[in-house]
Amino acid sequence: MTYCVAVKLNAGLVFLSDSRTNAGLDQISTFRKMIVYEKPGERFMCLLSAGNLSISQSVREILQVEQLKDPETDEAITIWNAKSMFDAARVLGAAVRHVYDRDGESLKRAGVDFNVSMIFGGQVAGEGMRLFQVYSAGNFIEATAETPFFQIGESKYGKPVLDRVITPNTPLDEAAKCVLVSMDSTLKSNLSVGLPLDLVVYEADQLKSDRIVCIDDNNPYFRMLHNTWGQKLREVFDSIEHPTWDGSHTAVPLMTGSARRALKKISTPKDKLI
Amino acid sequence: MTYCVAVKLNAGLVFLSDSRTNAGLDQISTFRKMIVYEKPGERFMCLLSAGNLSISQSVREILQVEQLKDPETDEAITIWNAKSMFDAARVLGAAVRHVYDRDGESLKRAGVDFNVSMIFGGQVAGEGMRLFQVYSAGNFIEATAETPFFQIGESKYGKPVLDRVITPNTPLDEAAKCVLVSMDSTLKSNLSVGLPLDLVVYEADQLKSDRIVCIDDNNPYFRMLHNTWGQKLREVFDSIEHPTWDGSHTAVPLMTGSARRALKKISTPKDKLI
């Protein structure tokens, strides 16, 4: 599997991906799932992909040459000349459909779902940042202030901390920390997600990023975060009172009377019901 | 959906279930997913169920009258007279197969999977405690010291804290706190899991339990835990350094040279590839 997450903040965008790919548990490999498209000063885009690796690799390969026709000018729109991130996302959707047209029928015959999901975000000079999640059908949705992050792949383990922390006002470095904690929880609980990680932090309106890092076992920040988070989480856990079963103010009231009888079958079996 | 979790410790067993059932998002109801079978001093068993509600309700109904033949004595084995939890789990497996024989074909015609999963644990006088996870086919696996907990339903959100805390030596009340934190994370991130919760704490060799509680919105312990956990988690998160991008000891080393070029596509598109 895979775990990728991207966040859209007022201050910028943060992208994080793992790099484990597996076809069954005995065929595990490392593949990068992030790619950055940058024309400094003009456009910055980042693409994260999950799902069938042959599909996502094909989409990434095609994406650089894929084009849509502009209905007004009849000119070709590519991710390199699109005037908006929305148009660039349409080009990405078209690339997904292109791969479907090429491979979909054969995959179906082989019993393989056409399964790919992508997160695509960035900024083109002249408009604000945008962040999209693109589905297997090439359609897509956009992140909003109410839903400022997208996750693809093994998303559930790492969702609670994002739900607790991320808002559009979260500062960039705090969001970077948060997605790394989210990834750490996922790594802890799911073998199919693995290091190294690729992290991109994009500051609004820069139209380029120098904060592109590959995080492996030896990365001092991620090691610190992993150890500190695990240890402090444990301290917090230990600091919360255990439940008590008497009358004190945090006691768990014991169930009595009919509520208790509804849950509990006591003693001998009923007569045969069926 | 549903979230149920059960833990087997040296000190006893802990069972927790939510009570939300949904058939699509506009048909949400409250159904209890826990049932306790107790003959004080002789046997204590607890069953948690997830999956198709009509199946799990039928299994629970049948379970009290289901019987297997003992091949040696030709006597009927039920959950009320089984000499071991293993035999009781076999009776439960037989009840699942009984419902499959009755409903499986009709469900298949209606395009509905025969989907049910259960956690079943407890103790029969004369042997140790045991905890099983029972599948749709009526087969089952048993918890061990290495894998002391089972989860069914929406299990991923709440798994990281269990992975971090639970070992066979965890005290009972600490385990009760841990499954409640695990449930709290699940409630936070998934609408299809909801209050009230049913919690059972069983102390080894008691062959009965008085710690059976229903936890709703007003439960003071769960409210305290929910608020404290959320707030302290946030404090821990805030206490961890943000990543820095310079040369300090926890810095995230920036990617340079070929590694960076491998991730980044700069500027103009390649020639047409396809």
TrEMBL record, chains A, B:
SUPFAM superfamilies: N-terminal nucleophile aminohydrolases (Ntn hydrolases)
Domain of life: Bacteria
InterPro entries registered for this protein in UniProt: Ntn_hydrolases_N (IPR029055), UCP009120_prtse (IPR016545)
Name of the protein described by the UniProt record: Peptidase
Species of provenance: Hydrogenophaga defluvii
